[in-house]
Amino acid sequence: MTRTADAGIPQEALKQRALALKLHGLVAHWEELSDPQIDWVRALLQWEDSERKRRGLERRLSAAHIGRFKPLADFDLDWPAQCDKAAVSELRRLDFIKDATNVILVGPNGVGKSTIAQNIVHHAVLQGHSALFVNSAQMLGDLAAQDGDNALRRRLKHYAHPQVLVIDEVGYLSYGSRHADLLFNIVNQRYELKPTIVTTNRPFGEWNEVFPNAACVISIVDRLVHHSEIIVLEGESYRFREAKERASRKKKSTKSTRSATPRTPAGDR
């Protein structure tokens, strides 16, 4: 008859949990456990499971290189003149990861493309997915600087491996054909296997200006948009808006301080 711990978890379930945690020594001596010992085994498994999840989350967050970002709860999605808030909210369900659907965030500078991407990646990491957030110039420069085929293959694997890859700010700089070939390699390795999130200030029709004279631009775009969610944002810079609000608050604070400071009578000077 199957014995159970106080929490009501069958011994066989506890054994499978120990096996999943790779506690092979404990599993090998499982039949030697007595009823009183099951309580501390259950506690041991809980401690080990919690600690491994904590360390795993720390590793994934560190590897993702998300950096500092504004939570969407603090970001005014009504600020952009155009923004499909329902589509942004849907991305947080992370179905695009399971479906290997790319996400393309298109819009001018400062409307929140990177912020949205950072929030999505952060949520994916919290849910147990591996991820990497990288600036396009940094990634392409890193790949182009590799000396030798073996070193290049290792770096290509580094960028192709995460379950979610964000390539940020494509279009702010122009690149040569070599960089375009490297980007194609990454996109092609992930095609229909893992989703890639791209933020860009250029519509795809202008990517020939980002990669002038590169023969593979059409192939890059074709693979990115084949299975994709394209979200277009329009409006003025959110950062510029915040800068103006800070300046306004500072100006009001200065005026308030001046008005509250008592004036010294002329005769007392």
Short description:
53% of the residues lie in helices and 10% in strands. It is an alpha/beta fold and 269 residues long.
Could you state the order of secondary-structure elements as H and E? HHHHHEHEHHEHEHHEH
Shape: extended
Mean pLDDT value: 87
Strand neighbour order, sheet with most strands: 2-3-4-1-5
Protein structure class: alpha/beta
Main sheet specs: 5 strands, parallel
* Low-confidence parts: 1-6
Helix content: 40-55%
**End-to-end Cα distance:** 97 Å
User: Gyration radius, to the nearest Å?
Assistant: 26 Å
Helical run tally: 12
| Total strands | 5
Roughly what fraction of the amino acids lie in strands? 5-15%
Describe the 3D structure.
By secondary structure, the chain is an alpha/beta fold. The protein contains twelve helices and five strands. The protein has helices spanning 11-20, 24-28, 35-64, 85-91, 95-98, 113-126, 136-144, 149-160, 177-190, 207-210, 217-226, 238-260, and strands at residues 102-106, 131-135, 164-170, 196-200, 228-232.
Features:
single chain; 269 residues; alpha/beta; five-stranded parallel beta sheet; 5 strands; 10% strand; extended
Please give the structural blueprint.
Layout: H1 11-20, H2 24-28, H3 35-64, H4 85-91, H5 95-98, E1 102-106, H6 113-126, E2 131-135, H7 136-144, H8 149-160, E3 164-170, H9 177-190, E4 196-200, H10 207-210, H11 217-226, E5 228-232, H12 238-260
Parallel strand pairs: 1-4, 1-5, 2-3, 3-4
Helix pairs in contact: 1-3, 3-6, 7-8, 7-9, 8-9, 9-11
